[in-house]
Structures are given as C-alpha cells and as structure tokens.
Amino acid sequence: MSAEFRTRIEHVDTDATGIVHFSRYTSLMETAGTEHLEAHHAGLTAFSAAGVDLVAADLRVTYLNSAVYRDVIVADTRVDHVGAAWFALAVRLLREEEDGVRTLLVTGDLVFAAVDPDTRRAVPLPAPLRQTLRGMVPDAAHRPIGTPSRGGPRGSAAGYLGDRRPSTRTPSATVHRPGPGP
To answer: What is the pTM assigned to this prediction?
Structure first.
C-alpha cells in the first residue's frame, strides 16, 4: 500500500546555487514517511499513545537528479518490511512537471526502531501497530512473518539508542526523538 505526499520546494530548501541542498531530501523523505504512517493510523501519534517512541535507526539515500526552487516534489512511500522491534520505509522523491511527467530524484530507505521512552532501549513494536504495519507491506501475504527482506537496523540501533535527557548520557548521533528537544 503506497501513499503520495506532495510539496513545493521553498527558497530555504536551496543552496547558494539555487539547487536543493542534499540534506533537505532526507527531511522530505522523513516527512513523507511519517505522513504516510499517520494516514494509516500507525504514525508517531499512535506509537506515543501506545507508550513507545520511534527513533531513526538507519537511513540510506541514492541521489539521482536535482530539484530547484518552486519545483513540485511528489513522494511515493511504502512500508517495505516489519520486524519485531523495527520497520523499514522505502521512499522515492520525484519532481512533477506541469504536464504531469515525473522525474525520479532520490530513492531511499528509512528504518525506524521502537524504544522505551525512559530507557531508550529497543522494545518490541506494540502488537496492534505491528499488525497494521504488516498489513501495509505490499508482499505481506507472500512473505512468512518474521522473514526479513534485509538485515534490520545496524550499529547502535541494535541495542542502546541514546538518551535525550540533559542530566544523563549524550545522545547517539543516530537518535531522533519526536517531540520537544533535550
């Protein structure tokens, strides 16, 4: 199941040459992904209500073409895999011309891990949300549950994911905690 997200490139998205800065594509990918999840009642709001935080555990991006100020960007997003404590989103960003022709700009994968809000340690995805996410995987009916299509989160995502509380440890560079900052 795929969802489409649409936005227009603003001046703030561009660098001194007028081309979208490479770092903005990752932000657009995350926004498209979280909006897709919210539209299917499996987003940050649902995870928060279940007492679980989501953190970005892995990000992979392939840059293919550029966008400029005022371009219309369309994001095609889908849940690619659901594990016990993490899930992966596949995102494609495309430039849409006035005649409807689309040019692929960026492809990428975002892996989100479920963590306990207090300990910042990985926890299983809440069962109802895991089932919702699994129902969004295009080939969910053909892949046995628990059979990953990729290796899952790597590095710090496999264990301690950092802590955003100012009185304790410094957060890991891979941790993104939705909501108010430290």
So the answer is: 0.74
